[in-house]
Design goal:
43% of the residues lie in helices and 16% in strands. The chain has nine helices and six strands. It has a six-stranded parallel β-sheet, with helices on both faces. The mean pLDDT is 91. The structure holds adenosine-5'-triphosphate (ATP) and magnesium ion.
Amino acid sequence: MKLAIMGGTFNPIHIGHLVCAEEAVSQYGLDQVLFMPTGLPPHKEILNGAGLEDRYRMCAIAISGNPRFEISRYEIEKKRVSYTVGTVRHFRERMPETELFFITGADAVLEILEWKDPRELLAMATLIAATRPGYPLNRVSKPLSRFLIENRVKIMEIPGIGVSSTMIRGRVSGQKSIRYLVSEGVRQYIESEGLYRQG
Ligand code: ATP
Ligand code: MG
């Protein structure tokens, strides 16, 4: 069994996240990708115009219909920011037989590797770093090149998707279309709940 966790704020989930997860399934033969929306302090949720349950529901809507995609409430139940290493440890302990992966984009992988001690994380899970327009990975930092050599970090080429959640929120508040940038169910949810209108 090969399981990958994909963490993110998903505020909202968009096609960049979905393409990334789908590519990981096909390139690494994964059985399942577990989408893991992060918890956030309540004041940040209000500023962003979408609550924790909204982010969770949009993820659930976006992944429905893909039998390899699942969603977890593990981090949002904590209602605060979790460290990736803690989340991975939780699953490592409960699934000793499972080969674990953690999927990030090119921006987030560098943050993870700059942490105090990425070694524990990399001992428990292989990190899959997806290419992302605007975040070059060719000028790799020292820590990344070391872990690449050790094969604990894999760079995954995916079709470049220049979409971010920040862009989606900006387009909604600027009354621009987000059709095809998010899945249709998510677009309808954002519209019917009136999310992100205030910018
Ligand atoms: P925001 O603009 O709010 O930061 P985001 O689009 O970066 O949102 P996150 O929820 O922060 O989305 O990202 C979750 C994970 O998905 C991160 O590892 C991020 O690098 C990755 N990711 C997001 N968008 C893309 C994309 N277009 N291509 C590749 N990876 C992506
Ligand atoms: Mg981000």
